[in-house]
Amino acid sequence: MEFETPDAVLVPCPLCGLKVPESELETCFVCKQQYCQYCAKLDFGRTFCSTRCRGFFFWGDGEQDEKDF
Fold first, then answer.
1. In which domain, by residue range, is 53 found?
2. How far is CA 7 from CA 3, 11, 22, 23, in A?
3. Under a CB-based contact definition with an 8 Å cutoff, are residues 44 and 58 in contact?
4. Which of 25, 39, 55, 57 could disulfide-link 35, Cβ–Cβ 3.0 to 4.6 Å?
5. pLDDT tens for residues 17-57?
6. Contact 41, 50 (CB under 8 A)
7. Considering the domain boundaries, does residue 26 fall inside one?
8. 14-19 CB contacts, 8 Å cutoff, 24+ apart
9. What's the confidence (pLDDT) of residue 28?
10. Spatial distance between the Cα atoms of 45 and 60, rounded to a whole number of angstroms
11. Spatial CB neighbours of 68, under 8 Å, sequence gap ≥ 6
């Protein structure tokens, strides 16, 4: 599925390859990966590029131990 939008620059989504208007690509605030609305994972009132980033946002990077200090 490709979009026909006059005067829009179509670029492939880095995750799925679908050609979408460049202005519709979003950037994941966890990993900075760009993604389209069809790849977006919505949770916690935010959109993420993957379930991994969604989980990282909720669970963090694990327990801190002595080697982290």
1. 10-60
2. 12, 13, 11, 12
3. yes
4. 39
5. 999 999 999 999 999 999 999 999 988 888 999 999 988 88
6. yes
7. yes
8. 15/39, 15/49, 15/50
9. 94
10. 17
11. none
Please, what sign has the CA dihedral across residues 29, 35, 39, 40? positive
- Which of 36, 15, 16 has its CA nearest to residue 25? 36
Reported as a pLDDT band with limits 50, 70 and 90, residue 8 is confident
Q: Which amino acid is at 65?
A: D
Residue 66 domain flag: no
CA dihedral 31, 60, 54, 27 (to 10 degrees): -20
